[in-house]
Amino acid sequence: MLRALVFLGLLLALAAPVSAQDFAGLGPEIPKATGDPHPEGNRVMRRRHMEMMRHDRDMTMHDGEREIDASISECFECHSVKDEAGGYVTYESEKHFCRACHDFVAVKVDCFMCHRSTPEGFEEPALHAMGSSAEQDIDLARTYLEGLAGEHTESGRPE
Question: Could you tell me if 62 and 104 lie in one domain?
């Protein structure tokens, strides 16, 4: 009996690395960041980045606090991807850092309707709302309001 358990343990130990290799390409390919690691760690940032950014957005928009921790512009200091010509890719590109995971899990990101998707100092085409036409502004507002309507339950109250 003991021999059978030892044999089974060895068999599983040898099979485990092969299984891990089989699953290596199933997740998103996340571009490597530059700079120092997150103080909270990558695992925390991957799970809670939206919650942290939403909290800081509320502090900025509702309380007028401009010195915040999770500014989206700070993200691009380390999480910017360059194209073949050496310029930064915008959110329109599938290579953009945010799109690696968000496309994989089919999450719509609307940050870049208003915010830049590249680091400060890089001339970005007018993809965000500040450079849009009146028709685009109306479409953006309609999309935003439709999104808000989808966040309510049948009773009309927020979830």
Answer: no
